[in-house]
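Could someone model iron/sulfur cluster with this protein?
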Amino acid sequence: MQKQKNRKIFNPGKWSGKPYNFFGDYLAAAYSCRVLKLPIDAGFSCPNRDGTLSFDGCVFCSEEGSASPTTGGLSSIADQMLNAKNTFRRSEKDTKYIAYFQAFTNTYAPPEKLKKLYDEAVNFPDITGLMIGTRPDCINREILEVISSYKKENFELWIELGLQSVHDKSLENLNRQHTFKQTDDALIMIAEYNIPVCVHVILGIPGETWAEMMETAETISKLPVAGVKLHHLHIIKDTPLAYIYEKEQFSLMSLKEYVSTVCDFIERLRPDILIHRLMGDRMEESLLQPKWGLHKGTVLQAIEDEFSRRCTFQGFLYTEGDEK
Ligand code: SF4
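Reply:
Sure, complex below.
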């Protein structure tokens, strides 16, 4: 694996007290202040929605394309960022922010247009990072040149890739319209530019076994991946998945199953991978199932309790070797 230069690597438990390498704790330690994300909807579409690959989108994707409620209805990037900043209850003088291009596919435009949009975001006051969410099939060298131009010391530059699973049958079930090979290729190409990548993974995809989920953890640990966002499969109202669920009533993970599977997954994860997220997050009015997803604090505490009970931590079952 190509090492991410200038990145501090922490061992889980040594510096945050948590049994896993949590991104929020990494930020607090690296910047000695609060670092918050400001979500942006820059008006991108997605090849899986505009008919290039499909008109249907991924089955779990809502009309907002995973946008934050703070971005809705505001046209300028600066207005969205200001609005998001004002929603934080505490305002501290030494807070810094990460511009987070979250909604839809944020590299799905010509490089010149991307540069203009990213420039507008990084010029917002107190910005210390740029995060760009996209699909593995919407990355190329021209785009990576643009993203690379934002690299500097003490600045969090990340690409977020929707990987979801390393199993093509699961990607088909989710209607991702790309294969795992495409994600693998994108990761190798991004590593040449030394840009850290955070991959999104969904646990509990219908038809995926426990062993297959563990294979995802083991596979990404061998790839140039610097961060992971874990999500439980939840059903959002008015999505294709909601219609399938109403018809088929397939079973979803219980809270107990999810907590146990997350711990199993993290035990197999390379110890230096930063965990950006441990579960999906959704407002009550748009969440169909499972309802335990509304109690984030309870779920996070249950994960920590389960690690304490097992006396294990991130990487406990990871075996070094074979990294790309
Ligand atoms: S790739 Fe992203 S934006 Fe596009 S349909 Fe899937 S989840 Fe939605």
